[in-house]
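Exercise 7. Predict the joint structure of the components listed below.
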Amino acid sequence: MTGLALLIPLALLCGLVALAAFFMALRGGQYDDLDGAAMRMLADAEED
Amino acid sequence: MATRALLPEPAPLVETRESLLAVPGIHCAGCISKIENGLPKVTGIVSARVNMGARRVAVRHDPALTPPDLKSALARLGFEAEPLADPGMDVAAAHNRALLRALAVAGFAAMNIMLLSVSIWSGADGATRQMFHWLSALIALPTVAYAGLPFFRSGWAALRQGRTNMDVPISIGVLLTTGMSLYETATGGAHAWFDGAVMLLFFLLAGRCLDSMMRGRARAGVAALLKQTAPGALVLDDAGQSRWTKADALRAGMRMLVAAGERLAADGRVLTGDSSLDIAFLTGESTPVRVHVGDAVQAGALNIAAPLTVEVTAAGADTVIADLARLMQEAGQGKSRYVRLADRAARWYAPCVHLLAGLSFAGWMIAGAGVHQSLLIAVAVLLITCPCALGLAVPAAQIVACGALMRQGVLVKDGSALERLAETTEAVFDKTGTLTLGRPVPRHLERLDAEDRAILLALAQASRHPLSTALRQALEAEGVRPATLNAIREVPGEGLFADHHGMPVSLARPRSLVTLFGLASEYRHGAGVYLLSFTDTLRPDAAETLAALRSTGLRTLIASGDRPEALEEIARATGTTAIGRLRPADKLALLDRLKAQGQKVLMVGDGLNDGPALAAGHASMAPASASDASQLTADIVFLGDRLAPVAIALRVARRTVRVVKQNFALAIGYNILAVPLAIAGKVTPLVAAVAMSLSSLVVVANALRLKGGAK
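Solution:
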């Protein structure tokens, strides 16, 4: 039972971190252009 | 290992501005890198960023660059572009993102609560169960408050107007279940339904999210096609200098320069020049109108032949176009009164469910079960009947159907469009641009030999004149490769001149008088002179499509602004009655007459003159070549030169409505099985969770049958 006191908050924390990461990605515009992202990885990097 | 000094970003020396351009031609990774690497090499452009889904490019540039400059910079890279005035889609994108956030929160909470619930179901007892219930409450309460907001808002808005929709039973169900569970937790009860409430929100939000994404995509597709009729014009000041002025800054009395191939940004009177204008958007008439000094011209008209100087007489809200827009707005008000299938079902469903819950409460009270016990059972009835499957029944079917249609080049803009389309009984078609292609197509090109065709393509490629564009498209479609020409020059109002192996060649205005009767241009090669005539042709499958529509039980009619003589041939080819010489208001009146006869009209049109009729139709479709306003007004936009999408969309719409009704039947069938259990007091949180997921899965699986429906 004592394990629960540690494990439950830990599990919740892990979930919250993932949720925060998703929010950050959403705010950063990663979901704005899903088709473009799929195409971009095929493009040859031409940066100088 | 290559290392590079990290240079600080060079500070922008001048203030920059961001402009949006629609570039429909972007289709691959190569296009993206070509634009993003090519544009910044142009002086004055700082950076460019492509949005592939929306077919848009955001360009950061020196404010000195005007939209036509950016357009020509993209044209040099090989892309046709149109400046976008304002990014109106961002509102929809923000709404979509808010839904996605709510879905993420609901998903997170549902998983964690389910984890706790599974422990309770597998036998956690006493203090442990108590703690787990409290933990669930801790997660569920903020989640319901945040993720439930879209439903509470919409339900409340409906209630305030004295109506009811699907969101009303959802809101009541979620709120009551959460409240009752909280009470149970506080008093140490055996059951808490937090998992059910949150899972319900998660399922429903998934449906909403998909719905909004699908519509966002269709909207973006349409926005990318929009030809911004005239974002502005080159205005001449007193010193004879020309300056780019936005359409909303144009005032009466200004003098604007309109090059061939440009659209007028305001109503006006011709000061100098002699040209032909394409005003098909207004009248539906395909033949261009010749204008001379002193003639009145309308905003939106396309200047075909030679440059004009026009004195502005009316701009902005005073133009003929703006009048039409007002007419359209009024005509469209009837459509907003349409009640969607799901909401019509909710009208019956919500009172039934609430009555049932009330009756079970009363029944158990009379049977002597006590307030607490009776209330628990009433809440269980509400939870089990909460329209989870019902809420998914419509969006799931519509998303799958719209996805199938989108692969066929049909963009559905409005969720209710398919429902309305399935109900139509009569289809009214416009002629120019709808049954016909609405653009000049060169005739008798096969009379020219291969060398001449190669030279012609090289000449046509050098100009943006509408006839040159038509030639280029036709020749490129035949697989002709351009010849190499020297000293190509364009003489405004005259044509293109060049040298081919020392022989002068040209594509120019005809010297004869044939032009009075139609569009033509003249190709000269040395001493040889060939007249190229252009006509607007019928879409390749117009006759079959109309026949197919009639065979599905629809009545068809052609309503055009063109001369009745011009309609004869088309009426015969398609076997359909045609009415000619209809002004925009006449078309609207025709639709009203049909409506009064009890017909539900599907309006298919492209021009601005069809705008009011498109807005008034029970459902409306427009080709992607249509004017901006028509594409915005129409429920469905179809791409390509074929008319078949009209018949395909109708077939898919009817199938979709059938599947939606099946889904309703499935959802109701599930309720008939589950509700007696709930009323008998046999529903535990475990039963509720299983029943809810199962019914949702069945409904989604049934909707997936539509996937190949548009073949």
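Discussion. Chain A has a mean pLDDT of 81.
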